[in-house]
């Protein structure tokens, strides 16, 4: 094999440092991290080599590799690192950069990861929904009017088909398309870097990956932050529950022409409420774990916290909107519902650029790893 | 001095219950002619001490045999100035380490040996000569200058010899240095700032500096060295008390590193050359003068390499980190450090931590296989088996080789001693040419008494360490000068006033002593007769062990004394009860045995322990005498010798082993089995092993059977 010429890139190293990997230069390659990691493969294990690539600014080796996603950031490495190099945090930063690298348009990635644009990100759905109120005549002198006199129903504010789905269906398509584009680029980059003999079928690796994700079998190998796997599992299944809820609700409207509000005894309310509560429990556990393990594994970045806050926002506004409706407090209920829509928009529209994207990139990386017989 | 002996037996610590004193007291009085024999319940108590003191005052007793505990305990209580004090460790060797049935015989033997030792020994009288205390420092670098300052500030006159035209040594060649104090903070490179030190040396009234000078020769002995210094074509003689060797180092010859491109490519330089480049301002490439943006540092260039320097020079990793900061003075430039292992000993580990925080200082473990030039004219460093890939290349504008330190003593005696054993320090190949010693307890010392090494000539080290080293060596040099002035040994027997006093009329000039003395203390006169220089002597008595004529004696230690002690020891009549002499070194092996006994571990009753100053003083005549008396076996316990020797006198146990090679002749003559003599190496902390070693040996002797000379 001819010698490969390495291209150390100081600027790229500085970018990782800026992205939350400020401890990466402390690594002195002792390999404690790789040894304590229960998730890493036996052959060419991480995260030591990633730490070295990061120190040398070897962009291609870092980003076009499934390895950074095989890491589940248990942070056992960070807890045991004798120099405080926090490999878990560094790999977290690299994952964020992977999302930014392969997602498009790239300015979106920058905006989602920069607190300067936080207000703008929330302003976009706010303006969209205010505009919807305006065209329905619900705005008087720019102030939303609270529908009253009738039984409280949020469809009075935003009739679902016309005013909800016309926004969210395109948002969903946009997100799905951008995800597709991102993982296509990512897969191509990995394939270029890993000329390993691929398996013929992708279905088996995909099935294995899905099984691993559903059971959280890899995540459960974590040591220091073991509780994270439980919290993540609860949150993960709450999202699945909410997806089922949405599908059911959509079928009520479009298939059975049965409009809400639905009685609390309806199955869709049962699934939705259980999932909503689970979401809040899951995300609360995640926050508590982060606070508890702050010393050992690091505080996390803006990227992490942006996602946590949005999930919290979605769950809280959703549950509160329902409670306020049942309590029949329109003056608080309608604004809460408005806020809920804004949060849901932020969650989905920016998913290809936020931490939400990890579900897609990690899955892709896990499938690729199995496909290319990495492990 | 007229000796008057007294034997005091302590009954404390269960000695009284285990041993019948009457018999011992009667034998001591009547047969051994000890005028005063007494016992006491607790000899170390106020009453016991008062009793001894009263006898010293009233009876004129001046030679005390204290049959009580080991000399390694209660030495403050049993301190009687002006008296010879012989401690007999009855408690340890006869009581605590023996079954009750064996205690009596052991106590009798040891007390008898103690009495003989006291009878045969004399009060030491120091060897006095005219001495000076001036200190010669060879080398005017950081180590040398600091050694000179420390000595001068302590009130000693110093003569400093520097081979170059200016003081400063290697440090003067540097652009910047690593800060000498913690914490290490950016910018991590500070001015070398040697001027104040050079000024204090040159302006110090107690220091005489010779520049462009060389030590032509050193004659004489500590306290009275005659040193000839040549400088600018003229010679000057000075009288010196002690010498500090701080001759420093030179870089390894990089022209031997062709595989790394040195000599082939202009832009491959050594660390030392990079200092010169940096001194001119900026890191400019030698080939075209352009600023180097990508600088690769290859660590261990010709180091830790059997074909070049087999050792690690300890300072080059930190030096490369420092030079990486030179490179990083240009914010766009990167420094790439390729190492086998980063080795930053001591405080420099903190420097490593701090320096590597700079994103532009990139480090990786790598096996550098070569440096080549690409078609584009750029240099490429080739690496194998690195984490960055199995076979990868790095492009570099400039390649810096971390070549190691070669001590000045590697190919030059430097000292130019006029000693029979040669001009330099012996056996330096053990330390790859460095003027080091393996003595854990005696740093800075060399195999030439009164000569102490400091700085990079002793071990690879950096400037901060050299500075500390200088202080240590200065203290040792001062101690040496002071001890020699009062006729006292320097170290390790730093209390000893005795000296070897050969009966030259019986000398056959066989020269064994001159050859074997580990410290070159014995020269020869014109006729080839050995000529002792007591100032150089460490009092190990290796000469006494070497001498076939047995003419070398010390006041309190001689062949006849030890031989007589051995002769006094009982030999059991019963053929099943062997008698084994364990001859042990008093520095390591005996303390190990004593510790075992203090812990009440049982020692084989066949063994009788006899301690020597050093196993090197073991004279073969003792073996011949003992075997012809019927002793069944002789076990010699000394220190580890060879590469990682632990002998306090460097060569003692090794020489004893060498002599044992010749004992075969004696055994053959006596028709005895070779296995009856054995030498084992024991460290001071191996007290857990000594009982087993002794048991195994006694079992072996039992297997061989009794000495046929027994009872003859």
Query: How would you sum up the global shape of chain A?
Result: elongated
Distance between the termini of chain B: 38 Å
What count of structural domains of chain B? 4
What sort of overall outline of chain B do the alpha carbons produce when their principal axes are compared? elongated
Give a verbal description of the structure.
The complex is a heterodimer of chains A (375) and B (712). Chain A is mostly helical. Helices cover 66% and strands 2% of the residues of chain A. Chain A has 2 domains: 10-102, Fumarate Reductase Iron-sulfur Protein, Chain B, domain 2, CATH 1.10.1060; 106-371, no CATH class. Chain A has helices spanning 10-18, 32-36, 48-56, 59-63, 67-70, 76-80, 87-102, 106-112, 118-135, 154-157, 160-193, 203-215, 227-254, 267-292, 294-297, 302-326, 330-349, 358-371, and strands spanning 4-6, 139-140, 143-144. By secondary structure, chain B is α/β, with parallel strands linked by helices. Chain B has 4 domains: 1-123, Rossmann fold (3-Layer(aba) Sandwich), CATH 3.40.50; 135-250 and 407-485, FAD/NAD(P)-binding domain (3-Layer(bba) Sandwich); 253-403, FAD/NAD(P)-binding domain (3-Layer(bba) Sandwich); 558-712, Rossmann fold, CATH 3.40.50. Chain B contains 18 helices and 28 strands. The longest helix of chain B has 23 residues, at 463-485. The radius of gyration of chain B is 31 Å and the shape is elongated. The mean pLDDT of chain B is 94. Chain A binds chain B through residues 1, 3-6, 8, 10, 13-14, 17, 25-26, 28-29, 48-49, 52-53, 55-58, 83, and chain B through 294, 332, 334, 336, 342, 352-353, 356-360, 362-365, 380, 382, 387-395.
